[in-house]
Amino acid sequence: MYSLKIIIASTRPGRKGPSIGRWVYDRALLQNDFETGLIDLAEVNLPIMDEPNHPRFMNYQHEHTKKWSKLIESTDAFIIVTPEYNFSFPASVKNAIDYLYHEWSYKPVALVSYGGVAAGTRAVQMLKQVLTTLKMMPMVESVNIPFFMKFIDENEKFNAEEGLIKSADEMIRELLLWTIGLKSIREMKLQKA
Fold first, then answer.
1. In terms of DSSP bridges, do strands 77-83 and 108-115 run parallel, antiparallel, or are they unpaired?
2. Structural domain of 129
3. What is the percent of the chain with per-residue pLDDT over 90, rounded to a whole number?
4. Torsion angle (degrees, nearest 10) of CA 135, 140, 141, 142
5. Phi, psi at 155, each rounded to 5°
6. Which of 32, 51, 132, 158 gets the highest tally of CB atoms within 10 A of its CB?
7. Which residue from 173, 181, 163 is spatially nearest to 141, judged by alpha carbons?
8. Parallel, antiparallel, or unpaired for β 143-146 and 108-115?
9. Which CATH number characterizes residue 103's domain?
10. Predicted pLDDT at 192
11. DSSP string, 126-179
12. Cα(59)–Cα(55) distance, integer angstroms
């Protein structure tokens, strides 16, 4: 079975990312193709990048980086759940990405965004540029949630409409195909190393 981690990008107090992240997690569990887990960047709590060496050397000095490296290395695929901040994505997710290099390579990533009328789509476009630089494969299929607050009830539960459910399920199915393909590429690269 392949490992999937859903990364909740927002870390600010009062954020709604955990509600959306739990919904995505539940959708992934229903498909039963992944061993699925949640990563909340607020709980990971990485400081602003504090490693003295470039990540490509994997010569990590700090325990928080070593733990982060091990977690990401052991994962086959990702879904990043992100809000849109000022036409882009939160600094917390950029910081978490920048800590590592090889651990991200040749892995697929799906994107779930939320916001107002634009539904976080500008954040997704900016994030794709960063992810492809790390040799990650962003899915074309995504979930973009406009006016997301209308889907969150008084218990902080995200109640998706049918269109969002269909989009999420299709995105996760596509993510599985790329997970299978890219894992074989990673294994081939290891054999040649």
1. parallel
2. 2-192
3. 95
4. 70
5. -100, 15
6. 158
7. 173
8. parallel
9. 3.40.50.360
10. 77
11. HHHHHHHHTT-EE-S--EEEETGGGGB-TTS-B---HHHHHHHHHHHHHHHHHH
12. 7
Structurally, how many domains does the chain consist of? 1
Q: Are 81 and 9 in contact (CB under 8 A)?
A: yes
Query: What tens digit of pLDDT does each residue of 63-93 get?
Result: 999 999 999 999 999 999 999 999 999 999 9
Q: How far apart are CA 37 and CA 116, in angstroms?
A: 27
Dist CA 33 CA 12 (whole Å): 31
- Give the residue among 185, 4, 29 at the shortest CA–CA distance from 109: 4
What is the rounded average pLDDT for all residues in the chain? 97
3-state secondary structure the chain: CEEEEEEECCCCCCCCHHHHHHHHHHHHHHHCCEEEEEEEHHHHCCCCCCCCCCHHHCCCCCHHHHHHHHHHHCCCEEEEEEECECCECCHHHHHHHHCCCCCCCCCEEEEEEEECCCCCHHHHHHHHHHHHHCCCEECCCCEEEECHHHHECCCCCECCCHHHHHHHHHHHHHHHHHHHHHHHHHHHHHHHC
C-alpha radius of gyration, the chain, whole number: 16
Percent of the chain with pLDDT over 70: 99
What residues are paired with 158 via a beta bridge? 152
Is residue 24 within 8 A of residue 7, CB to CB? The reply is no
- Strands 137-138 vs 108-115: parallel, antiparallel or unpaired: parallel
